[in-house]
Design a protein that fits this description.
Helices cover 38% and strands 21% of the residues. The model is unreliable at 1-52 (pLDDT under 50). The chain is built from nine helices and 14 strands. It is α+β, with helices and mostly antiparallel strands and 325 residues long. Helix 2 (70-81) packs across helix 3, helix 2 crosses helix 4 and helix 3 (88-109) crosses helix 8 (295-303).
């Protein structure tokens, strides 16, 4: 016993031999007990990289990042971006567009892994290791039957735009100053006016209207000018592209169409306006920005017998399907 009250025992020869034997055998014991864990982890990593040709998506959610092989992520993403009851061929077209979005991200970041906003996808996490929900079956089929397919223009992934319902036409990108997307052109959507959400109306009082416009403009503007003198511009398809106002110095300031519609929660930038005393009424047609593929029209065309390849060809001028590798 030492001065600190700690019992000091001498190590005899038998104890020393036992200790050396334990040290010698420790690596083998660890290998037996945990070696397969590392092996399985490596196999899992191999499987993940093999699935989807090695492309991984990190879905950023509240509790962290959920990593998924690209093709598996697309199943969940597709189920979130297109109604469950839509035709399989319409879902295939949507799956190709979603994969094209990712392909553009992989190429831009020069990586086989990208991180995306995981809002909405977290609800699938608990079911990831179990049986697939019935609601995912058609989405999975659409992804599997278009595996690896993306839409390209001049051998590059396109800007894969889509939205819910048009005002009867899709928009030309060049009218918005985007000359590098000639495949986004005006397309007639005959079935969209039959959508139950085709028409909507929003009422905005005078004070709210002027307040929201003044919040985003810089300059000396009179409230009367904002209320009475906005100069609205629309593209050939009927979507608002901008509105301009003159300040006290005669200088014009603009608000673009998409910013304007979001200011007042309009379903789209395709609208007409009427006034009732101190209230402005927006009569809106369509839902979404109007560029690319109208999902409702795609579903109608699919139900009329068009394949996903024909649908994509209709909406994206002079593009080609290609295998993403």
């Amino acid at each position: 016993m030492n001065n600190n009250g700690i019992d000091l025992k001498k190590t005899n020869r038998k104890d020393a031999c036992s200790f050396l034997l334990f040290v010698f055998l420790l690596p083998y014991v660890c290998a037996c007990l945990w070696g397969h864990v590392g092996e399985e982890t490596d196999k899992l990593k191999e499987a993940v990289w093999k699935d989807g040709d090695g492309y991984v998506v990190g879905a950023a959610v509240e509790w962290g990042v959920w990593e998924l092989p690209m093709e598996e992520y697309l199943v969940y993403r597709l189920s979130l971006t297109m109604p469950e009851e839509y035709h399989l061929e319409a879902k295939k077209a949507q799956a190709v567009l979603l994969r094209t979005e990712l392909a553009a991200m992989y190429r831009e970041e020069e990586s086989r892994e990208v991180v995306v906003d995981g809002i909405g996808i977290a609800k699938f996490y608990k079911n990831a290791g179990g049986e697939t929900k019935e609601s995912l079956q058609e989405s999975r089929r659409a992804v599997e039957e278009t595996e690896g397919m993306i839409l390209t223009y001049r051998e590059e992934p396109i800007r894969a735009s889509y939205f819910k319902v048009s005002n009867g036409f899709t928009r030309e990108a060049k009218e918005s100053g985007e000359e590098d997307c000639p495949y986004l052109s005006k397309v007639v959507c005959e079935q969209d006016p039959t959508s139950p959400v085709y028409r909507s109306a929003v009422r905005v009082d005078k004070e709210t209207y002027t307040d929201r416009i003044l919040e985003i403009l810089e300059g000396d503007f009179e409230r009367k000018t904002i209320w009475e003198e906005g100069d609205f511009s629309f593209d050939e398809a009927g979507y608002m592209t901008s509105v301009s106002y003159c300040d006290g110095n005669g200088e014009k300031k603009e608000v673009d169409g998409e910013t304007f519609r979001h200011l007042f929660s309009l379903n789209s930038a395709s609208f007409e306006m009427t006034r009732e005393e101190d209230t402005l009424i927006f009569h809106v047609t369509g839902v979404g920005h109007g560029f690319g593929m109208s999902q409702f029209e795609a579903d109608c065309r699919a139900k009329n017998g068009e394949s996903y390849k024909e649908i994509l060809s209709d909406f994206f001028f002079q593009t080609e399907l290609a295998k993403f590798e």
